Amino acid sequence: MEENWAPEEGAGQGLARCLHQEGLAGPLRWLENCLRRAARDREEDGVSHPVPLVPLTEENEDAMEDRRFQTLLRQLGLRPPASEQESFWRIPASLTPQQLQCAAASIAHHGPDPSGSLQGLPKCPQDPGPGEGPGWGCGTPTSGYGLSAEQLPAEPGSDSESEELVPVPVPTPMQSGTKRRRELDSEDEDG
C-alpha cells in the first residue's frame, strides 16, 4: 500500500520555493519545525507513530487548506486524513528520522529572507542546529510548546534553554511572550 512510500531526497524544494515567494514562509517554517520535532521524537523514543499536523494559527490553517500546500505535503510523504474520524494531515509512522530531517531540509529557505528566517542549513542534517526551538504547534496542542519565532534565538547558557522544556499553552504567537514572561516571573517568586 502507499503507506510505505518514502519521499525522494530534495522532494518539494521547487514547490516550497514558489510557496515561500507567494507569502507562505510562516507555514513553511511551521511545517519544517513539525518535521524536525517528529524526527527528534522518533530518535529519542525509538518508536514511530503517526503524528497529526495541528495548525494552531489561522495562517497555518489556511495553508493546510491550500491545494498547492497539500501537493507539497504529499511530495514530502505526508498523508491526508484517512477517514471522517481524522481531521488532520499526518506524518506517517513509516518515515524514518533521517527521511524527516531530509524533508525538513528540502523545504528550508536558504536564500536571503526579508521576513527573518533562521534557515541556512545543510542539505540533510542528522541533528537540529543550536537555537532551533521545539516547533510552532505541530502535533497535538499539548505536545507543542508554543514558542514564537522571537523567542528562538537565546543566548547560550541562558535560562531559556531549561525553560523550553516546560510546556506553556499558548493560543497565538502574539501572546506567547506575555504568557511565558508570567510563567518565568511566577517561578522566580517561588524559588
UniProtKB/TrEMBL annotation:
Gene Ontology molecular-function annotations: DNA binding
Pfam families, sorted: TIMELESS_C
Residue intervals of the Timeless C-terminal domain: 18-101
Region annotation Disordered: where it falls in the sequence: 108-191
Gene Ontology biological process terms from the UniProt entry: DNA repair; DNA replication checkpoint signaling; replication fork arrest
Gene Ontology terms: cellular component: replication fork protection complex
Listed PANTHER family: PROTEIN TIMELESS HOMOLOG, TIMEOUT/TIMELESS-2
Entry's family note: Belongs to the timeless family.
Protein's recorded name: TIM protein
